[in-house]
Design goal:
With 133 residues, the protein is α+β, with helices and mostly antiparallel strands. The protein has 2 helices and 4 strands; from the N terminus they run ααββββ. The longest helix is centred in the middle third of the chain and has 51 residues, at 21-71.
Length: 133
Amino acid sequence: MDVRTHMMPCACKHVSGGFTLLEVMLAMAILAISLTAVFQSQSQSISMTGRSRFETTAPLLAQSRMAHIEAMSPGDIHTEEGDFGDDYPDYTWNLAVSETEIENLKKIALTVTNSRMTLNNDYRLVLYRCIAY
């Protein structure tokens, strides 16, 4: 065996099967952008669900309370507030009775509020009622 061939450095390159740092960074950036879009969409969906629940529940509660007020005798109707009990713990109501320009006509404004929501959390229902004594 020839000593020269045995001591010669190998000119072949060693090929690695891994990813470069640049490829990993690009993959992470793409993943971060796509996950941000997915999380934002999920957050918006949850917000819209809560809003639609309020838009359904508040009018029904207001109509129910207003029906109770309409059934009352005119002398018993006055400004007051309350809640809807354990069935709807986040909802409260406020009744405001005020005079109008027309004699014996009262403005009865009922506002239903959801305490968990921070924006647009009021639903208002107004009734004008003739109260002759």
